[in-house]
């Protein structure tokens, strides 16, 4: 499983340097395009993205809090059968995770069965306020981002599940629009599945989870505000769905209902697609000093006066300590074998795993169980001796706060860099929507590590994005 020292799987070229069938038309086109033209298109894309205002906070950068996420003009292409496996596997996973969430907030059968430890109930993301609360259609994770990596022809692994407030879908949509604008001739060569209907599918699913008896539900998107790193996406999705973008101060609670202030007076809101973490949504229930939330919102939610997407308490299912148990959840709840495998994972709360990891830190990736965005992690092969020593002290002081995994040789895709086209590591985040049904649009956020040899693709760590083409036929 430790593939770090092998030649990474190349999405475009086979080991004998011949081009994979799905890239044949692209390679043929590429041979006739000067690198200077690709660079010109990249600069044009950057200018257009800047005009639209697509920015992202990159914490710790001295050049300013906000910058564009770099966009690469070389697409990642997936065959229909490859996408079918990814799609089926991601849907299967989200179904099981929703059943897990319903279970732990109700009868906790999976804990009684000894499959998931009772310690899940002391996880910081477990919300006792949700115990016994029924949510429409038993859906907790209405929008899920499943991070998938590839190490071989048919070797796909789930790296992590994002169920709280997964972001990045706006880049999937905007990258596609940009590619169609810059390279219309390429789209005439391929039959590429469309993604632009995502906002309508999302809206239909959100409307479908309104409380019973609501015939024409009003949906709003709740944002922390313009200073949030993903604010562009919040505004973009609200505009695309034709719904109001609101902040906590725009909403108020009255008689077991939530209203938004409008120029025509108060308007009842039935479904809130919230992009605010649990801790900040209601100062009466969680962080008392939160200026972002709505006082009394949790009480209305508990009493069935409004639907929140994603549900409060969903984060307990995307904690990296819970990730380990997802394959068993699939077997337990669905009676099926997992379509997509987990990356083998060491639990540092186990003595034998801890000993092994401490002895092999230079070979492993270590992550905080509640970390995200590429923060709080150690990539052993790229770490200095000082960093390994410091991380050893962190682990020893609190082993249960960490997991470890082999260093995977993530697949690479040709990417335009200063020296020309070069392989760079990529991952994939398809977005699974649960409402009327559990579905995916045939596309995903493809993140690319722009630094040579880097395995960290997170936008917050300087990664870029690519358009993902899912072909309509094999």
TrEMBL record:
Which parts of the sequence belong to the Circularly permuted ATP-grasp type domain? 75-449
Protein name as annotated: Circularly permuted ATP-grasp type 2 domain-containing protein
- Indicate the transmembrane segments per the record: none
The UniProt entry, under SUPFAM superfamilies, shows:
Glutathione synthetase ATP-binding domain-like
Its source organism is: Methyloradius palustris
PANTHER family according to UniProt: BLR5612 PROTEIN, SLL1039 PROTEIN
Can you tell which superkingdom this protein's organism belongs to?
Answer: Bacteria
Q: Which InterPro entries match?
A: ATP-dep_Glu-Cys_Ligase-2 (IPR051680), CP_ATPgrasp_2 (IPR025841), UCP005522 (IPR016450)
